Amino acid sequence: SDILSAIVTLDSQDPKTGTKKHLESVLDFACGSGSLLLNVRKRMGAHGIGKIYGQEKNITTYNLARMNMLLHRVKDTEFEIYHGDTLSNDWDILRELNPAKKPVFDAVVANPPFSYRWDPSEAMADDVRFKNYGLAPKSAADFAFLLHGFHFLKDEGVMAIILPHGVLFRGGAEERIRTKLIKDGHIDTVIGLPSNLFYSTGIPVCILVLKKCKQPDDVLFINAAEHFNKGKRQNQLTEEHIAKIIKTYQLREEEPRYARRVEMEEIEKNGYNLNISRYISTTNAEQEIDLQVVNQELIELEKNIQEARDKHNTYLKELGLPPLV
């Protein structure tokens, strides 16, 4: 959550300039107990956000989120948590059909359920959130969650979402959605995280950073999958690991085997597959061997061996013993 909250609070067009002074609104459409929203608020300061919006389907967790806000001294006028189904979009404020009145958010963050099975109706194909991209498959609603959040993102806003690695390379409907998002220039950064980070699943996950208006034409890939501390039951990201990811995103830095900016032409050649291993080599480079240096070292070794043998044979001769050949 530290990574997501840091990314969405940085300036969208020029992250190098640092954290924004103010966010009008932030949305987490699968907010759970509200910890991610509170993390964004912590980074912005108590008065740095106009209003916090969250949605949660589970009634117990929804009540926990509301309680969590109040316990962290967020006034009831400063947040709105809704109990409802994100995918069916039953929250009245998000169902505004007039484009001029459509609610949009400076920051959208989410850690939705991974590869959630859903059953979209035929009418959903015409839903404003999905009609330009198509529906995510019934077996995995990952892109449905993504498109929901992206629809309500401001033009100058930033969205950061945690998803399973499969969204980077799976085919079919997901490939069509991914391809359009890339072609339209909306995918800004792909961050690969280690496996076994969460209690609920051991699968490797990624963070996708999306923007409606992004400056660079390239996509930044960050391979943080090998940077973690191994725990007994879970892998953990230390403060140093998290800071490195955030700094790399902020400065858009390249580093061998860790981060690389990839042009659209290369992504197109790879069939709009965003699998990180296609763009960042994770194998150690073979060490170049200088044969002249190695040959000289062998000559020196042979010389040292001969000198040692001659010295040893001198002692053997004094003792009346046969020499070493």
Fold topology:
Blueprint: H1 2-9, E1 23-28, H2 35-44, E2 49-56, H3 59-71, E3 79-83, E4 105-110, H4 142-151, E5 153-164, H5 173-183, E6 187-192, E7 205-210, E8 219-223, E9 229-230, E10 235-236, H6 239-251, E11 259-262, H7 264-269, H8 291-318
Helix pairs in contact: 1-2, 1-6
Task: Note the main attributes of this structure.
single chain; 325 residues; Rossmann fold; 2 domains; nine-stranded mixed β-sheet; two-stranded antiparallel ribbon; 8 helices; elongated
Folded structure, characterized:
The protein has 325 residues and is of the alpha/beta class. It has helices spanning 2-9, 35-44, 59-71, 142-151, 173-183, 239-251, 264-269, 291-318; strands at residues 23-28, 49-56, 79-83, 105-110, 153-164, 187-192, 205-210, 219-223, 229-230, 235-236, 259-262. It is built from eight helices and eleven strands. The longest helix has 28 residues, at 291-318.
CATH topology of the largest domain, which one? Rossmann fold
Number of helices: 8
CATH architectural category of the largest domain = 3-Layer(aba) Sandwich
What is the end-to-end distance? 71 Å
Work out the radius of gyration: 28 Å
What's the assembly state of these chains? Answer: single chain
CATH class annotation of the largest domain: Alpha Beta
Low-confidence stretches: none
* Number of structurally distinct domains: 2
Strand content: 15-25%
| CATH H-level superfamily title of the largest domain | Vaccinia Virus protein VP39
Strand-pairing-aware structural class = alpha/beta
What is the total tally of β strands?
11
- Average pLDDT: 90
- State the strand order across the main sheet: 3-2-1-4-5-7-6-8-11
The ordered H/E elements are HEHEHEEHEHEEEEEHEHH
> Describe the biggest sheet?
9 strands, mixed
Helix content: 25-40%
